[in-house]
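New to this. Please check both lines:
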Amino acid sequence: MIDQRFTAARWRKSIGSGDTNCVEVAIGGPVVGVRDTKDRGTGPILAFEPAAWAVFLDGVRDQGLTSDGTAA
């Protein structure tokens, strides 16, 4: 099933990413989408509220997350 929230989304991949083990992010609208680059258009999309995505990014920037995803 195609997630209609992302049919017109503009997906971005980090310029530092290689060809494997990468994710793409679509920011805009009521949700932020994250998908596996190699499954473009066919794989699942994780959807986050913008506030939750911002907390995640802040944690990554501040190195406040451990390798298992919990707060340090």
Observations:
- The CA atoms of residues 11 and 26 lie 5 Å apart.
- The mean pLDDT is 80.
- The beta strands are 12-13, 23-28, 31-36, 45-48.
